[in-house]
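hey m, so remember when u said the tokens were messed up on ur end? i reran from scratch. heres the input so u can diff it against urs
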Amino acid sequence: MAQWIGFMVSIKCVDDLGTYQGEISEADPFKITLTKAFCNGFPCDGQVLINASDIVDLKLIEKQIDEPQENSTVTVAKPVAKRAHRSYSTSDSVPKQGQIGVYGKSKPIDIDLSKKMDESLSLSFKNNTPNKRSLKGGKWMKGWKDEECFGSPVGSQIKEDFDFEKNLALFDKQAIWDELNAQKPDVIRQADSKKVAKYRHDENIIASQPTSFRQIVVPKQDFCEYVTDDGLIIPCISRSLKKKLFEAAGKAGLTFERQIELFGSAAAEISIHLIGGSHRLNPSNSHQLPTVVVLCGPHQQGAAGANAARQLTSHGVRTVLYYVSSEATSIRKELALYSMTRNRTVTNIADLPQAVDLIICALCEDTETPMSYPLLAEWINKNKAPVLALDPPSCGIPGIFPKISLLPVLPLPHSPSNGKLYLTNLAFPVEIYHEVGIKYQSPFGSKNTIPLHPNE
């Protein structure tokens, strides 16, 4: 099978391995070795060995041909300014790098001017105005305007550039207006002072209140603060106040299931942006669909992760859900709904795929001593995919360092190990915030998810 060495090939493997592209360096009936390989669009380190039993489909693309580069000869004509008493322009050839040969000259452009045209032009130079006697047969001669403008030699009259800023500073516009107004009679000046001010098209004529950047006030501000892209200040709340807020929302009718649905929708939306958005999720790219692994614990955060996995499958994303336990009532319903999507659920770390595009971590709930998962942390750290954490503990996830953390409603004072923070809108009514003592005005504007930055 040595005749296939050097060909570019696209190999589709079983679901867990993905799709590989590369150049065949070795081939036999049992295995293929690829160099310069890519797996699902990501470059691989070194050579890739693929067994024949793992191949589902194989397509030969083309054979790499290394052609020696040859020096080419390019002659570029460099224009030379027209000199006095010369009726044509010349151009000298300039060789480019790698040129081999003899210098050449391009053919000059000849302009035939009649004797009558020369006489009229010389007369027009003296008068500094076009001469109408340059007419020939009742029409203007072609090129007389160019010769009038560019035909005379350029001397040393222009010695330095004109300084516009210096001369503009010499003109005091306000002083001139004051001088003109001082010449008006007193009656006219009094009438002018009573005129209604004129506004430009981009000026606001309606008086507006100054912007308040502190729209949220919590009962006890003992923690740090965050700020949005618009400059609005988002204060942190305590863990006990957050619990009261969610209990008040549940009593008002925003049940746990409705909160999880909104939070899972926001997690699915930000996940689609992280895996490439419409560039990856389109019909012409169905041969390499993105793969997302969702890690769920037995609590509300785990239920949100399962909900996000189900919503990602509705967008065509291939998902693999790992759950620690299915005994918790908070996650049991979401796991049952996810199983209807026909995507994989695993409970063994060895069954997790190696090549993934995104990892959603919903393993730990917000407690002072979060649960530790060292084997899962080791698998995540070996994988190169970014990690999205759903409402992680404020002190951080043991052994796991997410790129982005998604938080509901109002943030807790989070550790820098939780990565970049994003706040999600769960559409709690204002009265629910007032019930727990929080003065609240929504900072979300036209978005459901906004980034938070430390207010330093």
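this time it looks ok to me. Residues 256-274 form the longest helix (19 residues). if urs says something different then somethings off w ur setup not the seq
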